[in-house]
């Protein structure tokens, strides 16, 4: 198991959740948790107790352990506050668990001690921070602690243990089962779900199961033999635990009345228990034996018949029960773990029905009709009810006993928990034998577009402000999955719901901007406008095609939608450029608010706008004036007069059928009332295509490579797919130009004995072939030795451009191990910390695969276009023929090369290259004096080569290499050479005339050059035969390209098209793997059809860093509860799949690197970090290369929150900008400075301050970027100014992954502005903040320096030159004074403005419009990233400089400011 496992998986608010809605389990009312301030915290008695007993910073003054402290805290602060999250947060944040509860736990501790530990663990899980790390010390006591927890779980007396406490224990048990990758948990929970738990089964049922699985009977007997008599009672208690706790749950469930008051805590206990049972059923190791015990307890049937299911408060309970039913009946063989097909499930169903019919025929004459009927006529619920309705209780009991479903008559008294009434027995038999709809069938009939019922259902798509306190009926992505079907289905459901959440945000944003009001005549009046939505003038369904054979839905439904585009020209163009297959939404609103009512973003959306229904549609195209669809193509689109535009759209056939069925039953026809058409940004609008791809995968036989199948599902040996364990590993590989020289090669294999297969030192130059002797079959000892053999690449021609490009990077030993692993067959995981050269490693792997396996094809997949372009630009610079490179998708426009690597760009390249080559053939023809038009086509050129060129070469070979082996005269070689005239444009003389071997090699290289011309022309022949650009581009993709690059989104969108085309590939390399969603990582494995039932994939190389930020999941419930943010890369690391951890960084100063290197196994520095001058020099005008600067309240205010999650801190913003201005005045380049923050609100505020103070000032300008830490992942700059914003709660940065990204963006200088008293005590941040706190927390400036300085980084600053800034105001005044000095020096050229206001006069305004709680999402601005605008110097306003006024301002401490701030950029 990986020791460095990322358990911090949140992008949500941590510590105190201000304004957070907690999902109530039985109502959609939101509760507000009010966060205490730092001052309140310091005054809190818990904080005072912490200082006295366990706070880390007061360690020397701690008093001895006092168990009464734990008792008092539990009674007063935990139980006494009714388990208030606010109080529990304070305790958890104070490190109560790590420093007091667990270190002082001893077996036999009090209930208060046990429950305190349980509640702290649950809180850590809720907040998504590291949990099990706290138990590394005293881990031997965990077994005793776990046993005490199990004992408490079975306590039924609510006076001794309240139902809330029992719920907390259930949640804890579930957390342990879901942390089975931790040996600590695994060792405890595995005993509860082993085969020995079948001791709780009825004896007849157990024997029946053993007949079905004889292998298990052998194991059962073996277990019984090994048991020690002394331990039997304890072991039996353990084995019966899950059975007993289910019986206890059923008692609690039965206590809920059908009517009257019900305790919310009891309902929550029931919900949490179903969550536990569902999670046990959804994992094969826990399900294998537990599923039978669950069935034997009849828990599902008892829940189905319970009163809670019928009550309003049971809404979530019903949804959880549906999930449990689904997993209890899941299509899997519990013994083998193999997936069951629909045919297998039908066979099982038929065998159950026929065994029931056989029993009925033999023993129950009353059921003779049932026994003789065919299966299809009796396997529905309705038919079974009809047959069983008339049976007596005794007969029902007898049938159930015959099927081993209930205890025999003798055992009835010993099994008081079992129900024997008619209703129960009938339901038990019917639910077991009724035919169930295939999950695949129901999935295929599901509409893919969400409707208003789903979009605003809080139980299905929870609110953004999910606290993590309750449970939800959502699938979870943990470590393991039952089958590939289960894997795809969970991902399908979560991807659909996450897309629905984004669609909800877009609809609310667009419709609220349109401001629909009710006019006096009852019609809709539009009071606003929206860029992304337009009122519909006319809507009509124009075609409903007949269903296909065997289907119920129409094969196609089309409609026409007309809108009036009387808007700005650029917006009109956006609407007119809607492409085929773009998804839009048809919305109908019936507003009730009169004209002039202002929309309130804080109030519920639907009542304000009167939203009635939402339906999705897919654009077929814009109609021309004749009513025909305008097709996409190279031809210019026809001009359409006027502003009215009509779109032909496809509607969802499944949804249309459902709607028409309701209309036929008397409901309103929703297709008569649409009045808004909404589009979405193309980047965010690919959900339907991805869902269709997943659904398609579920409908086809999913052939994952055998060596990957179990690892993807999370089973078997995690290292099984490592190259060292693969049966087809390759002993000898050409490492091409990987090594700079032989010494570099030796340094890269420190643990290997290196043998050199070359006696001449002069020939010991790259490229090298390496043979690993531990991989050869004759090496029985498996000694770690390798043979290095240099080899000469045959010269490709006499021209200088024929020299191959060579790698210039001296790779480190771990980088070479990553390259070696990537070249071998199997799964390679490369963990690349910041600045460790992940991209260079990826590029070298691709180059080496290209040269070692010229017939194999490699696809490159990345998360972002930016990363793909960086990778592609480096690949294009290596020795790879560019005709074999191809870039798919719409990001190729951003490639910083003059060459076009897109499909059509490559086709044009091939056609142009063909003409160039044919010109060369023409020149060759003329040089040989051959008549005729041989250079007309590739075909004629081929004949010319065969009959004219090759014959001359063979004749020449006969002369210079005679068969007798005579030595040829050196002059003959040049005199007889037939192509001398052709090569007269090569460097002369062509033949050196010094050595026969050298001249013969020159002749050979010249012929290789000619041969290569004709080989390429032969490859290009297909482009002459294929006439259309589309056919040519398909051929290029399927046959010609060897390295194909695309984003994960493109792969998901285009899978069907690629498979139908016959696309094939052998290797996958994924960059940014830890930022790619699980399902988007999986889809690229299946972009080709299997060959003979096998996937031809040979290598899968994943490069990423799970210690940095995960994929962006915008909905907190899916992110936290469902763990949707976990990438496949992270999951594989958690499972213990071997990784290559790059261990040398070359980005940051070693001092800055120390702020984050603690998170990695062994991260050091590359040599240049110590040697280069820029790393040796100090930062001009700043004493330290990194510093944490404390920012107290400014004007009595710290953080502010004008809107929920829109956090701002004006004091920090002004301080950051003051430092930026100071650095610019010293001469730092603006493009070398970036300002980062952890919140979107602060980002907007910083931009406002910069725009007001600096943007138009020629001396200062804008920094390179102002953005969030999340947005800046994957980028770097020399100097980073970081604002942490929060003063009441730690917030986002408590996620250590965000901290690592924040600390690792800077190369030379990092300056962090924060409230020190808040961040210094945060347990997760301690390793970084301890180092930050070792330096002064007031900004230290150095006088009399300009950029760049000559001062050494290690040099101690003279106290005379040091200035310590007490606060932001002093810094702003200092910068202002310095600015004025600079202006005086430049006043012949510029004049300064007369009045600058005090800092802090910017207003923090309330943000109107959609607010993102996730700092990685920014849908409240037009652009994803701010544009980098080049600024021409603009003179400062022409104002006379008054010396006395200037001096007066300096004395008063006046600094530049803005009078007001604009609201954060809205879209419209």
Task: Write up what this structure looks like.
The protein has 1468 residues and is α/β, with parallel strands linked by helices. The strands form seven sheets. The chain has a seven-stranded parallel β-sheet with strand order 15-16-14-17-18-13-19. A six-stranded antiparallel beta barrel has the order 3-4-7-6-5-8. Strands 22-26-25-23-24 form a five-stranded parallel β-sheet, with helices on both faces. Helix 4 (85-93) packs across helix 6. It starts with 37 loop residues before the first helix and ends in a 16-residue tail after the last helix.
Quickly describe the structure.
41% of the residues lie in helices and 10% in strands. The protein contains 55 helices and 28 strands. The strands form seven sheets. It has a seven-stranded parallel β-sheet with strand order 15-16-14-17-18-13-19. Strands 3-4-7-6-5-8 form a six-stranded antiparallel beta barrel. It has a five-stranded parallel β-sheet with strand order 22-26-25-23-24, with helices on both faces.
Write the layout of secondary structure elements.
Layout: H1 38-43, H2 45-53, H3 67-79, H4 85-93, H5 96-101, H6 111-127, H7 142-153, H8 163-177, H9 183-189, H10 203-212, H11 214-226, H12 232-239, H13 241-254, H14 264-281, H15 284-297, H16 299-304, H17 307-310, H18 315-328, H19 342-363, H20 368-372, H21 375-378, H22 381-388, H23 393-402, H24 422-433, H25 439-444, H26 452-455, H27 484-514, E1 516-518, E2 524-526, E3 533-544, E4 557-564, H28 569-576, E5 583-589, H29 605-609, E6 611-622, E7 644-651, H30 653-664, E8 676-678, H31 687-699, H32 706-713, E9 732-734, H33 742-748, E10 753-756, E11 768-772, E12 785-790, H34 813-823, E13 826-831, H35 838-852, E14 858-862, H36 865-876, E15 885-887, H37 903-928, H38 938-960, H39 970-975, H40 996-1025, H41 1029-1040, E16 1043-1047, H42 1048-1061, E17 1067-1070, H43 1078-1082, E18 1099-1104, H44 1116-1120, H45 1128-1135, E19 1139-1141, E20 1144-1145, H46 1150-1153, E21 1164-1165, H47 1168-1171, H48 1173-1176, E22 1186-1190, H49 1210-1226, E23 1233-1237, H50 1240-1253, E24 1265-1268, E25 1277-1283, H51 1296-1303, E26 1306-1314, H52 1316-1319, H53 1326-1333, E27 1340-1342, ...
Helix pairs in contact: 3-6, 4-6, 6-7, 6-8, 7-8, 8-14, 10-11, 13-15, 14-18, 22-24, 23-24, 27-31, 31-42, 34-35, 35-36, 37-40, 37-41, 38-40, 49-50, 49-54
